[in-house]
Design brief:
This protein has 27 helices and 14 strands. With about 850 residues, it is an alpha/beta fold. It folds into 4 domains: about 220 residues, Growth Hormone, Chain: A, CATH 1.20.1250; about 230 residues, no CATH class; about 45 residues, no CATH class; about 280 residues, Vaccinia Virus protein VP39 (Rossmann fold), CATH 3.40.50.150.
Length: about 850
């Protein structure tokens, strides 16, 4: 095959002085793209849920659109069009669609919720919704790099600029990730974030059009079309290699994010830091790879070398995450300022994952250099490599999130990644060893040449090294799954009796002494058989069921240890208990360790377990309930804030039967006053007559239960006592006695206030809404706070004895007053 004559180049060589400007445009493009990605994922999660299946569908659609866009543009857009014009209009299109999605998503949600189902049909419908929303803008995003590639000649020096553009795009993505996670969404909301991203698109497009007017464009000369230009020898080998590289990169990101979030705390800020570090590595690596590609005589040898080094880098990260970082002597609770903690988190992320991400970043420009040859359409060349890389990334992300972690665990998954990186390296070395002696086929090297000898040696090293390192990848310690960020100081407190890595989260069960068991999810205690935890879990159920006159149908959001759901087993009128749980391991395995405490609720004929995101289930079910209660869900965990929004509480309210009750857990520990005010104020926005019931530890505040009804709550103290003395409620009394709430006045005595009384204290509190998810940003900042005693005292300063809430005989009310005041902190 012969290459095209330089006179047939598609464009005039760009002026070198404009290349840095174009690099800045790609920075802006990457910034807006990451803001959109975060915003769109947040918007769509409200509609289709945030389970691993839902997020897998979203991620696959997002990346699939970019893959298709990179392939489609060179085939649909003529090379006669000025590349900068095409690039500018793509950016404008992204901005316009971004704003349209912001406006149109509520309507999409209404159509989806009107026809959604569960099982395979529901998953397919989720995929369709994701495609409708994300494919148009992501097609345009994927087309930007191939579009601008047509402004570059197919020389090693100019091809290296494509690597710099890719790196600049990633640098912008880092900035966009941090800007969205630490400022735009923390201080403002998704509306402002979208407008900022659209504004960046507009600026990029305007500058692109200006550059197009300053730089002439020459149509292709007659001759073979760019689509029929000679391919570089061995290009298919390169495409498969870069696809494997993308697969390993995204699978590793999923796996390492799961493990790092255990160690750092699964806040929204942690996920932003992990993503930013990952992108930083890709950007740095892309720049290094671009420099190497400029003068590389054998780019495929360098590409293979990158994959060989990735064998070592992946094993390094696996070792750091299992055997090193968890044991660093760091007490994250020492600092009240989250910004100091963020610095430590950033350092740990850089130490663990930066080497591998740099190598993955370097692989892309080296792959471009390995397939580049004169006469090719640069758009098709870049589009093909980018699409192969993205297709591999889709397979890696979906495979890891939906299959690998659940089926084989993070240890085996990382061993597999070591093997795949080795396979990618061997593929490149094999492409150099392919020919027979004295001939070169598919870009190979003559037998006995220095490059041939190097490839043979490196192939042997790859096999031996991969086998040794894969064998040595350690399992994640059970103590990390149990204690997470607190592991260095709490790892020896209890024995780990079970560890499981599930579809959505990692779980553990520990035993402290002979009797006490604790349930951990994602590095924190969610439930336990400790007296104060049992008290809270029983209160969530019994307060709801006893305030309601005759509860029959109950929805429990989150299974936990099953204790809250189990309380309803003891209530004689209840004939249906629905437990909505996102992680299958929890009801199937974990709750079985607490069978006595949860009254064997999972074996009760009245119980049904639904495996889905709770918000999605409440939105889509046609069923109404007498009680909707939530088992403990920490609000600082990323994603949990969606179960504390005003819109979610309104949805729960619509799914109540007349006289129905909603209860919600709110922790006072690991939180600060601003966060607690936001949670309570948001609940009272929907239930203005709501009440608060306190679970105290030694008469000091620990956590509380919010209770709401559509109409004002009324509790007849005498009838409450009579109900608990009935024979059919003997099981209820026994369940309450187990947590020192045996007397009727004990349970009512936990009353701690209601909406109207707390209005002065709650003035100025930030309402947690779908469009801002303010709570997850507030709670993430207050994670190291320990002001539960102060918050509880401030709340009690506004408490009175409400005569319209508690009715009945004067004797009964006086006894209740005495019980309420006696349970307060000593100096109140």
């Amino acid at each position: 095959m012969t290459a095209h004559d330089p006179a047939q180049s598609i464009t005039l060589p760009p002026s070198p002085r404009f290349l840095p400007v174009l690099l800045l445009l790609f920075v802006g493009s990457g910034c807006s793209a990451l803001i959109y990605e975060i915003v769109w994922f947040q918007l769509l999660q409200f509609v289709i849920g945030s389970s691993a299946v839902s997020l897998g569908v979203l991620l696959g659609t997002f990346m699939g659109g970019m893959c298709l866009g990179s392939l489609a543009l060179p085939r649909l857009v003529s090379p006669r069009q000025h590349p900068l014009h095409v690039y500018a209009f793509l950016e404008l299109g992204i901005g316009v669609i971004g704003v349209l999605l912001l406006v149109g998503m509520p309507y999409v949600g209404e159509l989806y919720l009107a026809s959604v189902g569960h099982g395979l049909p529901g998953i397919l419908l989720r995929g369709a919704v994701g495609a409708v929303c994300l494919l148009p803008p992501t097609l345009l995003m994927g087309a930007t790099l191939p579009a601008i590639a047509r402004w570059i000649e197919m020389t090693p020096r100019d091809v290296s600029w494509l690597g710099f553009f890719y790196g600049g795009n990633i640098a912008g993505a880092v900035f966009g990730c941090l800007l969205a996670g630490f400022y735009l969404l923390r201080v403002h909301d998704i509306r402002i974030a979208t407008y900022v991203a659209a504004l960046v698109n507009g600026v990029v497009a305007s500058v692109g059009l200006l550059l197009a007017n300053l730089t002439p464009h020459r149509e292709p000369a007659a001759g073979p079309g760019p689509g029929r230009a000679a391919r570089a020898p061995g290009s298919r080998w390169v495409h498969v290699t870069i696809a494997l590289s993308g697969l390993c990169a995204l699978a590793a990101e999923v796996i390492w994010t799961r493990l790092l979030s255990l160690m750092l705390g699964a806040t929204v800020y942690t996920f932003s830091i992990i993503l930013a570090v990952f992108l930083v590595g890709l950007g740095v690596g892309s720049s290094i790879g671009s420099i190497l590609a400029r003068r590389a005589a054998r780019p495929r040898l360098l590409l293979g070398g990158c994959q060989l080094l990735l064998v070592v880098a992946i094993a390094w990260t696996a070792f750091m995450l299992a055997r090193s970082l968890p044991w660093w002597p760091i007490d994250v609770s020492l600092s009240r300022s989250p910004w100091f903690t963020f610095q430590v988190d950033l350092a740990r992320c850089l130490w663990a994952i930066l080497p591998a991400t740099i190598l993955w970043g370097a692989s892309f420009p080296l792959a471009l250099a390995a397939v580049a040859s004169r006469g090719q359409d640069p758009g098709r060349l870049v589009g093909g490599v980018y699409a192969a890389n993205t297709a591999g990334a889709i397979a890696g992300a979906l495979g890891a999130s939906l299959f690998l972690i659940k089926e084989v665990g993070t240890q085996r998954a990382q061993q597999l990644l070591v093997g795949l990186a080795a396979a990618a390296a061997l593929l490149m070395f094999a492409s150099l060893l392919w020919p027979f002696r004295g001939k070169t086929v598919s870009g190979g090297e003559p037998v006995g040449s220095p490059v041939w000898n190097a490839a043979v040696a490196l192939s042997g090293v790859t096999v031996g090294l991969a086998a040794a390192l894969a064998w040595s990848v350690p399992a994640i310690p059970g103590e990390l799954v149990a204690w997470g960020r607190q592991m260095p100081k709490r790892a020896w407190e209890a024995e780990v009796v079970y560890v499981g890595e599930g579809l959505n989260s990692s779980v553990a069960v520990t035993r402290e002494g002979k009797e006490t068991r604790q349930f951990h999810v994602s590095g924190k205690i969610e439930a336990s058989s400790h007296p104060h935890d049992m008290r809270l879990q029983r209160m969530l159920g019994h307060v709801s069921a006893l305030v309601h006159a005759r509860p029959r149908k109950v929805l429990v959001v989150g299974c936990g240890a099953g204790v809250t759901a189990g309380t309803f087993v003891r209530h004689p009128n209840v004939d249906r208990i629905v437990i909505c749980e996102i992680e299958p391991l929890i009801p199937q395995v974990v709750a079985r360790h607490f069978a006595e405490e949860n009254h064997h609720v999972l074996d009760d004929d009245r119980t049904e377990v639904v495996y889905d995101d709770a918000r999605h289930y409440v939105l889509t079910t046609q069923e109404k309930f007498d009680i909707i209660t939530s088992d403990p869900i920490h609000p600082w965990v990323k994603g949990a804030a969606t179960l504390y929004t005003k819109e979610y509480f309104e949805t729960c309210k619509r799914h109540l039967n007349p006289g129905g009750v909603v209860t919600q857990w709110v922790p006072l520990y690991e939180s600060d006053e601003e966060t607690v005010k936001s949670e309570i104020a948001t609940f009272f926005e929907v239930f203005p007559n709501g009440t608060i019931w306190a679970n105290c530890h030694e008469r000091e505040g620990y956590d509380i239960v919010l209770l709401g009804q559509e109409d004002p709550t009324r509790i007849d103290v005498d009838e409450f006592e009579r109900r608990l003395t009935r024979p059919d409620h003997a099981g209820v009394v026994k369940s309450l006695k187990d947590v020192d709430l045996g007397a009727p006045m004990d349970l009512l005595g936990t009353y701690a206030g209601r909406g109207g009384e707390l209005a002065p204290w709650l003035e100025g509190a930030q309402i947690n809404r779908d469009r801002n998810l303010r709570l997850q940003y507030l709670a993430g900042m207050g994670l190291n706070s320990n002001w539960s005693w102060w918050i509880y005292r401030e709340m009690l300063k506004h408490r009175t004895f409400p005569e319209d809430l508690f009715t009945g005989s004067e004797k009964g009310k006086e006894a209740l007053k005495l019980r309420i005041w006696s349970s307060s902190p000593p100096d109140l």
